[in-house]
Every structure is written in C-alpha cells, then in structure tokens.
Amino acid sequence: LKESSASQEHDFISEEKSYHIVLHALSESQIADAPEIADELLTNLLRQGFHPSSDLFNLVISIWSQTGRKEASKKCIGYLEDLWSYHEQTGEDRLVPMRSSYISTIHAISRSFFNRPEKEQAEKAEALLEEMEAKRVLYKQLAPNTIAVNAVLNTWSKSRVWYGSARRCEQILERMITLCKDRPELKPDTTSFNTVIDTLSKSKEKYCEKRAEALLEQMEEICNNDPSLNCRPDQVSFNVVINCWAQSKVPGAARRATAILKHMAKRFQEK
C-alpha cells in the first residue's frame, strides 16, 4: 500500500508539472477561450481527487485576470476561496494562496465593468488588501507590498465614484507612507503618487488642484531627503498637476499652472 501511495504521489507530481507547463503557455497566449481551457484543466485534476498547488491556481487566476471580462473578478475570488478551503481541510502549506494571486484578483476587479469598476468593486478590492494584511500574521508571504496597494489605488482611481474616491486614495497613500517606515516593502513609488494625483484630477471634490500640488511637493521632498526612494516625480506627475490648475476656476489658477510649468522645465533641464 505504501508503494502504491508513493507511486500515485509521484504520478501526480509529474502530472502537475505538465499541467503547469500548459497553463503557463495559456497565460502567455492570446487565445480567446484560454480561461475556459484553464478552468477545464484545473477541474480535471480536482475530479481525479488531487488538490493542485496554489501555483497552479495562481496561473488560472492570472489567466482570468487578464481578460477584463465582467465575470473575471468573481472567478478569481472563487478560486481564492477554494484554495483556503482546501488548505483548511488538509493543513498543507502548498495550498495557501500566493500574494500574486491576490494581486491578480485585485487587477481583475479593476479591469472589470469595461474598465470602470463601481464603488462596490473598489471596496471589494480594498477588502482583499485588508485580508492580506490580516493573514500576514500567520502567513508572512501574504504581506501586502507596493504592487498590491498600487492595484487597489488603481481600482479606486478607475471607479465611478466622483466624490470620495480621491480622498480614499489619499488615505491609502498616507497609510503606505506611515507603515513603510517599519515595512520597506510598502514604500510608495512614483506610480503610487501619480495614481492619486490622477484621481484628484478627475474628481469633483473640493480643492483638488491644491491637494494634487501638495502631493507633487511631497514627492520632491521625499526624494530630496532620500534619493534611493523610487518616487521621484516624472513628467506625468507635473503634467497632471498643471492640468488640474489649468482646469480650475480658482482665482490665480492660470498663474499657478504657469509657475509649475516653469519649475518642471527647470527641473528637467538640470538633469
């Protein structure tokens, strides 16, 4: 019996490697029905009584995440829930979801609904981030990083929440800045700041132009104090803030836009 069990385990490991190769190829392909093929392959393994590793689930989640389909986020969340269920049943660490699976699921949410997730979806993306944060106590590999937080910022930025999304992005960024002092994997980068600035530029909240410029100044201050940090403002940063002021009805807005333009020109000339 021991020999039979060992033989079955060896066969499964070999079969799983083959499935991994095919799923990886599907994730790199442009095949329209790649998600359905991936579903079928994973289901086939499960029907045989095997519990595929989180790595295989991660590939299937990634394939769905890339589609931008409305049902993609539901599929990805379902697979995450399946993994946790299998892990609880078996206690096997190989069935703990990967951080990249969570990130892909958040991306799936941001790409759903024709690239315009509703408030409910943005909150769902943030809930996944909070779940990662809660589970990192027992599973260090699930600790959120800059990429994960940026994915949530992107979801809020794309949402149809004209009032509130910018402030929520600011709060998430502020938390990143606070936490990264002890957790360097959460250091905000240029993308983090640019996403929040862009959200402000599209928002109907008050004082968006001033808030956007304050973030630009914060980026410069952070980089001046620590050049190793990857949040140096680029031309996108400046252009969006300039546009914020150019579109503003605040007295003196045009002068402010001109002043920032001159500052940008000087900054990049010095390079």
Anisotropy-based shape = elongated
Helix percent band: over 70%
Q: How far is it from the N-terminal to the C-terminal residue, by CA?
A: 71 Å
Number of strands: 0
Mean pLDDT: 90
The ordered H/E elements are HHHHHHHHHHHH
Portion in strands: under 5%
> Helical stretch count?
12
Uncertain spans = 1-10
Gyration radius, to the nearest Å?
Answer: 22 Å
Largest pleated sheet: none
In quaternary terms, these chains amount to single chain
Structural category is mainly alpha
Structure description:
The protein is mainly alpha-helical and 271 residues long. It has twelve helices and no strands.
Characteristics of this structure?
271 residues
In short:
The protein is mainly α and 271 residues long. The protein contains twelve helices and no strands. It starts with a helix and ends with a helix.
Topology:
Elements: H1 2-28, H2 34-47, H3 54-65, H4 72-90, H5 99-115, H6 119-135, H7 146-158, H8 165-179, H9 190-202, H10 208-225, H11 235-246, H12 253-270
Helix pairs in contact: 1-2, 1-3, 2-3, 3-4, 3-5, 4-5, 5-6, 5-7, 6-7, 7-8, 7-9, 8-9, 9-10, 9-11, 10-11, 11-12
